[in-house]
Amino acid sequence: MWVVASADESRPSAAPTSRNLALAGMLFAVSMTFIDQTIVSIAAPSIIGELGLSSSGMQWVVNSYLLSLAAFFALGGRLADILGHRRMALVGTVVFVVSSALCGAVPSGGAAQTWLVVFRAVQGLGAALMFPAALAVVVEVFPVDRRGRALALFFGVSGALTALGPILGGWLTSWTWRAIFWVNVPVAVIAVVLTLMARIRNTPRPEPVDWPGAFLTAVGMGLSVLGLQQASSWGWGSALTWLCIAGGLAVLALLVVVELRSRDPLITMQIFADRAFSVDNAVLFFAMMAFVPVFFFASVYAQVALDYSPDEAGIYLLLFFAGFGPASQVGGRMLDRRGARTPMLVGTALGAVGFALWAGKITDLSLNAQWPYIVLSGAGIGFLLTPASTDAVNRAIGRSYGEVTGITQTVRNYSASVSLAVLGTVLLHTTADRVQQTLEQHGLPAAQARTTAERIAQGITGHGGGSGTPGGVDSTLLGQIRADFAEANQRVFYGMAAALAVAFVCALRHPGTRVTEATEPAEAQEATAATAATEPAGPVEPPPAAAP
Predict the structure, then answer these.
(1) Of 184, 219, 529, 532, which residue is the least packed, with the fewest Cβ within 10 Å?
(2) 133 and 91 within one domain
(3) Which residues are CB-contacts of 279 (< 8 A; sequence separation ≥ 6)?
(4) SS (H, E, C) 95-123
(5) Of 222 and 295, the one with more pLDDT
């Protein structure tokens, strides 16, 4: 099947593109997707209480969004190249915000769970269509020598919004939990207005869509991520868990064979022959094992071990971004001047040391003992994220920025799913073991201690619909259980440090070559030429704030 766009859209527009407005528009668009990754979890108890959902049903409300993201990122990136980056950014924004508004309008009654699961999945589809296109717009309108700084701002601001989810969610839920979905409407309106004002050129490439490849990608990613997500509920010993994971991986292996033989593949496998591109994605894979899960684990740790409120836990996470934000700007400038290898090595090394030191102090139950290492951990991720992501996109074949962005985002999403599943299991079982020892020390028989410990562990780790707070626990044991949970988290944070150490080893394999204006594909040079003569060559100006 061919997707054809009108030929006149590929011509330069009469008015020049405003780079800063384009960056601001894309930031507003993607801000919704980042906030939505954490904001729904905060409102979960209110949603369950009003709509009468089961704990497993609420888990599907959260997971359906992430499953849809994983399944459709690659297709979204390819469609962005075929139909044009601006067009797909707008389409994805509209799909996302309409489904978000419908989530907020869910009726009470028996259909509530199905309604929420379906439209959360459509939200994920909208995000998968929007994000690769939005990132491709930024890449396309900024020349190579300014791209690192622009994307540092893009990733810095949008990444920080993830930490705002718990704070914003707590504030909105105090009014009504439906507002966590409705807040996306004004943000989307601003994104669309800024995008239209920026006069971004739409540059379609009429090519066939590889629907077999899209189907295999969706099935393979969907099945394997589903198995990872449900491992905590089904159990790692469940045949269904491994059927999903192994079946998904088998489908993805088949995808590679099909794509290598396809004339117009969804994913151009030949790009992995570029060692720098492969290293960039390997660094992202292992780094995201720390970056994405840290929001969940640190938030629950703060609420349970430190006895913080959700709002205070959000502020705890902001310490991470006190290091992440400035380091992302420095990393972007290092990329522009020296290439990706140096900032990736610096970032992975700082991150590994920071997470290891953070883990060492996490049992102190004192923010004063932890905050320098939280900031250091954030700085490490900040240094590496923009260079790894931007260098990978810069190496796109032709100007298939959307396709390559889809690949890198799929890698990041899959890595996060693996890490959350594995580290979540470690946290659950270690917490149960520690609590069991505590209960036995206080005279409880071993069998009863184990049953009680497992119930408590499921509750405070968020498994099985837990609230994240130790309920039904004798006050004399509460302090010791908080300490037990902190000890369990220590293993998790050491695991994150180990993942970043592996990312450092991967970064050593980067050849150190840079993509410059002279080496970038001719088509990509033409795409930025229309704005180069009309935009100042100075530093990227910060766009309007991207948070609602």
Answers:
(1) 529
(2) yes
(3) 506, 507, 509, 510, 511
(4) HHHHHHHHHHCCCCCCCHHHHHHHHHHHH
(5) 222
